[in-house]
């Protein structure tokens, strides 16, 4: 059983993360979800809470924190104790934050709190022009040089109507990549 933290960022492909979280939980993994404010506009946190059977982390500063460490320090726990951190969809915005060390939302702050031994994975999803933008490609290369594993993106028709590279990999491909990682 792996301790897995799934970071959801704000893109239409967030709906695919629902299948990934469900399958990981059904496989017996300890799954926690953190969502950026933009991600909450695409899929309700309640969906992930029901599937993971855990409260979803959505804020750096919860309005009514309980006395447990996960409520007091949501960017540290479970991040400091997780075996695998996967960001899906990994938008251009979250990739830039991860590449440059920003921590202004629960997902990017959690990434800064990961242990050295934590496996880090990201699944890009964005419009073709965004994916091909040189600064996005530089940020992707930065993450890969730092040991982040990448799954995708694929080519195909996207929600915005464009057709090309930038489509998030299907849940089965992401699950296969996660299952191949020894932890």
Write up what this structure looks like.
With 183 residues, this protein is an alpha/beta fold. The chain has one domain (3-179): Flavin prenyltransferase-like (Rossmann fold, 3-Layer(aba) Sandwich), CATH 3.40.50. 37% of the residues lie in helices and 20% in strands. The protein has a 5-stranded parallel sheet, with helices on both faces. Strands 6-7 form a two-stranded antiparallel ribbon. Helix 1 (14-26) packs across helix 8. The mean pLDDT is 93.
Topology:
Layout: E1 3-8, H1 14-26, E2 30-35, H2 45-52, H3 69-72, E3 84-90, H4 92-100, H5 106-112, E4 119-124, H6 128-132, H7 134-145, E5 149-150, E6 154-157, E7 163-167, H8 171-179
Parallel strand pairs: 1-2, 1-3, 3-4, 4-5
Antiparallel strand pairs: 6-7
Helix pairs in contact: 1-2, 1-8, 4-7
In short:
By secondary structure, the chain is an alpha/beta fold. Helix content is 37%, strand content 20%.
Strand content: 15-25%
The name of the CATH topology is Rossmann fold
CATH superfamily: Flavin prenyltransferase-like
**SS-derived structural category:** alpha/beta
- Count of helical segments? 8
Q: Any idea of the CATH class? A: Alpha Beta
Total strand segments: 7
Low-confidence stretches: none
């Amino acid at each position: 059983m792996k301790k897995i933290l799934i970071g959801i960022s704000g893109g239409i492909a967030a709906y695919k993360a629902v299948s990934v979280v469900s399958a990981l939980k059904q496989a017996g993994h300890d799954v926690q979800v953190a969502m950026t404010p933009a991600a909450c506009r695409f899929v309700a946190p309640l969906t992930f809470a029901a599937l993971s059977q855990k409260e979803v982390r959505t804020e750096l500063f919860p309005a009514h924190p309980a006395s447990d460490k996960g409520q007091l320090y949501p960017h540290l726990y479970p991040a400091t104790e997780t075996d695998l951190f996967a960001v899906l969809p990994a938008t251009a915005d979250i990739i830039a934050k991860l590449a440059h060390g920003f921590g202004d939302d629960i997902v990017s702050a959690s990434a800064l709190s990961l242990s050295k031994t934590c496996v880090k994975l990201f699944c890009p999803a964005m419009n073709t022009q965004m994916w091909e933008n040189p600064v996005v490609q530089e940020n992707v290369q930065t993450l890969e040089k730092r040991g982040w594993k990448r799954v995708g993106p694929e080519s195909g028709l996207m929600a915005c109507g464009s057709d090309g590279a930038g489509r998030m990999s299907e849940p089965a491909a992401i699950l296969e990549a996660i299952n191949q990682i020894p932890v």
